[in-house]
Amino acid sequence: MNNAWTWCLLLATVISPSLMAQVTFETTVSKNELGINERLRVEFTMNKDGDNFKPPSFEGFRIVAGPSQSVSNLFVNGQRSYTKSYTYLLTPLKKGVVPIGQATIEIGGEVFKTTAVTIQVNDAVELPKNPNDPNYIASQNLHLVAELSKSKVYINEPVTVVYKLYFGGNVRPSDVNPIDMPEYKDFWSQDIPSRRAIDREMYKGKQYNYVAWQQTILYPQRAGKLPIAPLTLDVQLEVPTNRRDFFGNQIYTQVSRTITAGKRTLTVMPFPEEGKPYNFNGAVGSFELEIETSKTTLNASESLQATLTVKGNGNLKLFSLPEVVTPSALERYDPEYSEQVNATLSGLRGSMKNTYTLVPQFQGKYPIPSVSFSYFDPQENTYKTLNSKEIIVDVIEGPKAFDVASSAPNPAAEVSSLSNSFQFISQRTTFISKAKKPFLGSKRFYFLMFLPIFLIVLFMSLRKRKPNAALAAQRHNARLVKKYLGKAKRSMADSVDFYVSLEAALHNYVKARLHIQTSEFSKEKMEALLTEKGVDPQTVNLFIRVLTNCEFARYTPSSRSSIEQDYATAVDAITQMDKQL
């Protein structure tokens, strides 16, 4: 009996350490601070075997290799030591503090989690100069450069930025992915499609292959030192090694590199005040102005089209066209806007047009006065003003203006005969029925007297029903539209306040009529919904054009005439849409 107790005690002494051993599951990193061009080794280690291992998402990093799994099972002095690990190689995708989340695993039916780790990612560091290290070879043969067509420009003068990816002849990019796209704050920008063909040129005294990865036209919207944020790319490279295969061909290895073009600064000069025309509204470039009419001879009540065109090379889309003024005898409708603009490396090139429909009312010769348009030419550093030719519209048939005036009735004519004109009408009456009973005080009298009061009471009782919430919201938004339109009209002296108020009014109108939230608002969605509701395309285009003008007005100054025209167009568009909806 004593021997049995002795053996049980000995067995418990041997087994108890393994039963009481605690489970450890932890994260180990090769370094807590590294450059954006370095690699990070992350290892998840446990002291007991488990199932269903789930790594973190590694957001902010790219997995270069892994997971690689290793198991260590040792017996030292009769004691078992077990270790299992999952290892990853990562490269950071952005600078700053980047966390590595928790990993999980199931051990003995229980879920264990690691502790999150934070990594500080700094600027790129200089790598050790080892000619046999693939990472060093890649760093010496891969460059990203941002080239500016100009370093000093005026406001609204185009400048082109081209991002060139240079790579040496002994490395081959296999995959390129953007990490940080540049934000062009204080610029109006438009990308130019790049064919991304491989060309060759000298860079830092060495012949390189290169690809024009991205091309963008920039139009600065304010003066000063404007920074251009860098472009950052993640590039997969095939780098040659010192090893060769069975046939003697050189063996390549995959290397990941994160490269950036660096920050650039552009000097933007303000417009000179000397010689600035009164009607200058921010047009910069080289332009031509012309006005054409579809006909110059016609009859009254026939229509003709007058088209004002501004064409050339410059900041098209970023200024408003001058207004065509016509005599009051020519009825003028709101213009239809059209454009044909192409983006090139030298800037925007093309034309913008406003087409007016004119309808003469009377005979005569009516002039369409000359239109003046001013712009700034940065090549000659001077302002220029263009004037269109005057056009005479000859209305050969139709009523004459003085005929209409002469045919108007004369209120003083034959006043003396009015006294005898109504003598045939009886001037006395009595409210007596055929039965010789007086109407005043009869049942019919009281019925007709109290009937309107009864109808009013009935109508007011029906109005006491609780109004529909959606209808109340729609009325509220309609009041907001009136409020903002009124504010916009009062703010015409300040173009910024005017266009902010006008845009708010248009937003609230669409919100009220189409029942959409402001957060869901976009021109494309609004256009689709209005078309679906049956609004004709011409009215939709008119409404969209006013919204577009509000957006452009944030970046370019607007003349008084363009402000008044946009306000009138907005009121007209809302009125037409309200009728159709």
What does the model show?
This protein is an alpha+beta fold and 581 residues long. It folds into four domains: 19-122, Immunoglobulin-like; 134-269, Immunoglobulin-like; 285-401, Immunoglobulin-like (Sandwich), CATH 2.60.40; 469-580, Four Helix Bundle (Hemerythrin (Met), subunit A). It has nine helices and 31 strands. The strands form nine sheets. Strands 11, 13, 15, 16 and 17 form a five-stranded antiparallel β-sheet that branches. The protein starts with a helix and ends with a helix.
Number of domains: 4
Strand count:
31
Structural class: alpha+beta
Mean pLDDT: 79
Look at the structure and give the CATH class of the largest domain: Mainly Beta
Main sheet?
5 strands, antiparallel
DSSP helical segment count? 9
Q: Please identify the oligomeric state.
A: single chain
The helicity comes to: 10-25%
Question: Could you say what the CATH topology of the largest domain is called?
Answer: Immunoglobulin-like
Summarize the model shown.
The chain has 581 residues and is α+β, with helices and mostly antiparallel strands. It has nine helices and 31 strands.
